[in-house]
Here is the input.
Amino acid sequence: MPQLLLRRLLLVIPTFIGIVALTFFLIRLAPGDPILLIAGEHGVSAERYAELQHQLGFDRPIFIQFADYLWQVLNGNLGISVVTQTPVLEEFGKLFPATLELAILAIILAVVIAIPAGVLAAVKRNTLIDHSITAISLVGYSMPIFWWALLLILLFSVNLGWMPVAGRLNFIYDIDSVTGFMLIDTLIAGDREAFIDALYHLTLPAVVLATIPLAVITRMTRSSMLEVLKQDYIRTARAKGMSETSVIFKHALRNALIPVITVIGLQTSILMTGAILTETIFSWPGIGKWLLEAVYRRDYPVVQGGVLLIAGLVILVNMAVDVLYLVINPSLRQQK
Amino acid sequence: MSNATSVEDVDVLTPWQENWYKLRANKIAIAGLIVLMMLITSAIFAPLIASHAPNEQFIDSLLAPPFWSEGSKAGFVLGTDDLGRDMLSRLLYGARYSLFLGFAIVLISLVTGVAIGALAGMKQGITETVILRLMDIMLAIPAILLAIVIVAILGASLFNAAMAVSIVLLPHFVRITRAAVISEINKDYVLASRLDGTRGWKLLFRTLLPNISAPLIVQATLSFSNAILDIAALGFLGLGAQPPTPEWGTLLSTSREFIETAPWTVTLPGLAILITVLASNLLGDGLRDALDPRIDQ
Here is the structure.
């Protein structure tokens, strides 16, 4: 197994360099001269242009520029936003907790509902319960989540007035940002009302973001459970007189969860896609909304750095999932 | 196995007939197929079915509600939008964009993906490694994000959005084709065909492709629903079709501000997207069960 782990870790390096290359060259395909963009609308003289070009290194061969960029990235320098003049990494760091808080809540919501639902559907196979769960998860799987978000706003915010429409916290509360997680910060501040308000603001976006993962994990749990329940060792467990509850929870579920954990890990990419749409609709100040606004404003350093950070995150999580899979899967553990 | 003999001998089913019988037994998949067929028909005959042109304005009927609500107007079955345009007509014409683009995107992705995947599978070595790494990189960037970046660079238009979505869907086809080609390439029938002098693209299209089509068909159906969702999402974000194009995602984004006063302008386009995506997912699931390929997930 150590070799397997090592090979998996080493595979990340070319992929990561590839992503740096992809974002580097993609951005250079964009129309518009970056120097003129930096110089502003008044334009520059030919001399100043050449000076800027030299200063920014644009007069060097493209591969030297790329090697330099790669070196900068490895040193944590992702460039400076054209619009705000702040380092991209700093902006990302400031906004990331908001996205992370939303994503964590969404994935918890999805897992807590999906695994029992999937198990229930598999155990009650071909009953009304199974058919309803399968049908609901299929609708969830096919849902355009930007529309789903609008429907929830229409019902819970506009018609019933239960939920806020946008933001993380009502402006009447003044909470110091310690962790960047609103739920934890309000607890640290000891403000009970603000905590409840933050929870209210989180509910609808989290439900929207959880929808697709919920459907995917439910389907996966169901089919994985059905697969496991067919196995000989389940028949053996039943034959030796074990109670059905023990068979399902002690024998079947443990083994059925192995592929499900992989699928949960693979939701990172879906969560990031969802975050762009969800944050835009709910005016959630996270990296999804930040990145989309950078695209609208043609703030290329932010787009480049943001894509790089998100892709890097997806690669890291996928790698962690692979490692976890090797660790928890007993059949792979034995191959030394 | 060949088609020529099966016409004479009705007892022997061709693989396609066999798969069709299996699919036909799956009522839910057939329901999906029928809904999809109805949508395609109404998209094709939109000019005949729709009572108005998609951009025709009726100034005296702004935001008229649908027929089941109070205050609805005759002639506007599903109501009108903020500019007095007939919702039903716009939705029908919108179906043309979503469905036609869905097909076009899948076709482009499928053809390019099969070509690249087959190249990787048949050449192997360094070509294969480079292609696979590149696909890994594309898969590491979330689909909508990659599409947004591509659109940001190429500019916001329906055509660029469609190109972006085709690129995003490509890696799946490449990986499936490569895996299928590798599993088939050393089989006897391929060897026989090679000894017969078949080489290169001819070997791929005549010999290999008919035998690896099952996983590709399933992937194409599932990609179709993804393509429709992604195009609608890009339209919703203002990065795809531009108003007044009645593309469903664009309809949603322009009517968003009327969610309180005229909720039907928001609910109906989304419902159209959901029904289309659901129908093609039902068909895709059914096809997967019927064809039972080893899908590359």
User: Anything to note?
Assistant: Chain A has a mean pLDDT of 86. The first helix of chain A runs from residue 2 to 28.
